[in-house]
Write a structure and sequence with these properties.
The protein has 487 residues and is α/β, with parallel strands linked by helices. It has helices spanning 26-42, 60-72, 87-97, 129-140, 152-157, 167-174, 180-184, 202-206, 238-245, 274-288, 304-311, 323-333, 356-371, 378-389, 406-419, 471-486; strands spanning 16-19, 50-54, 78-81, 101-105, 114-120, 161-164, 189-193, 213-216, 251-255, 262-265, 271-272, 295-298, 316-319, 337-340, 344-347, 393-400, 424-425, 428-429, 435-437, 440-444, 450-455, 461-468. The strands form five sheets. The chain has a six-stranded mixed sheet with strand order 1-5-4-2-3-6, with helices on both faces.
Length: 487
Amino acid sequence: MGAGEPTKILFGTDGWRAKIGDEFTFENVRRLAEGVARVVEQDGATAKGVVIAYDRRFGSEDFAVTAAEMLLAHNIPVAYAATAVPTQMASYEVVQRGAAMGVVITASHNPWLDNGFKVKAPSGAAAGPELLKRIETEIAKTSGPELSGRPFADAEAAGLVERYDPYPGYKKFVERNLDLAQLAAQPLSIMVDPVYGAGAGWIGRLLAGGKLRVTEMRSERNPWFGGVNPEPIRPHIAPVLDAMRGGGYDLGLLLDGDADRAGAVTEKGEFIHQLQAFGLLAYYMLEHKKDLRPIVKTVNESSMGERLGAHYSVEVFETPVGFKYVGPKMIETGASMGGEESGGYGFAMHLPERDGIFADLLLLDLLVRERALGRKSMSEVLAHVQSIGGESHYLRIDVHIPRAEYPAVKERLATQLVAAPPSTLGSHSVRAVPLTTKDGVKFFTSDGSWLLVRFSGTEPLVRVYAEATSAALRDELLTIGEKLARG
């Protein structure tokens, strides 16, 4: 990009993200919103309006107002969140209102210096590749300085802005599939950690009024996120693991910065990693909900999906990384649920989009149901599910690459791993031709363990994933993957 040229904006696996004040600027937010507005007009959906939400990051509400002003300049009505809310609340509002689209100002789990722009399709799912390509095409036609919006206060006075609180409607929406009063009546104690994000207070509010004791930590607004990434994985969750190890809690529930991702901790303070959580939720749907429709999973999600699918005679579909692929695939196949490695899980009975709060509530409901069958702790439940779906020893490492060098690194890895794939990984033979995805290469060893080297769609990172039948093999595969990534 030359001096004075507009930023080239391309959506990644989950929206567009950049560093605040660098590329994430008010000018670029205007361009993004202008692209959305033009596509809404092209579809003849102006009267349907657009839902806007935002998280707790620095300046998110101001960027949201800027986005709204661009839509309002096209006379597109805006439903504007009354306060910072979880991303999935925008999905819920889009569906409930029959809106043309949804826009969320959030960078999800990214570092605190970043912010982002997500788009929701009319179905409530993440906007798919086709819709995003149309928006990108319109964005490319803009430069930014020539764009101006309609003042927010003026449009609100004219009745084009409605401020919404999604809580009452969302609670009723959840209660279609979960008996919240019954969960609240359980004599259990749970710990909730939203990592200072937009999910703070929601689980406790939904489960208030009974015997269930909900303790929440890191719930105040802190745009710095206490110096960690707001992601419900190690090492960012050390405080909740320490608290759980002290005893006195039956389950720990985790959320990311915009609460569309879920996580869990056993009563012993042991982290239930994202792939194990996927297995638990798939088991819940198959065994307890008796929902035998297909399951959708990303290429970096657990092989427990295939094994549980085989056990229950359910078809399992695999997609590239990103819920923009999972959601549409769920709709296409009539799937009961979809999941991705990052802790995002969606359910057809709820939304074809990630909802960390709903997924956490399902994990709690799973524990309650399994206790009635004699498995009294989440540790026992996890052991039982792994006895059916196989053990999952998993870890991911991120290899950071200087942004300027990232394109060359991607090209080198693609050439090296696809054109001349290894026949062995350490002491283990590669079982078959490696699976090549749109954003990485995946290798399987002879026992079904796998290694995935993947290029991040939102950051200059090479992500290395491994799921294995033992912790030792997992670590060996990760070491090999990191060496490949670093060249």
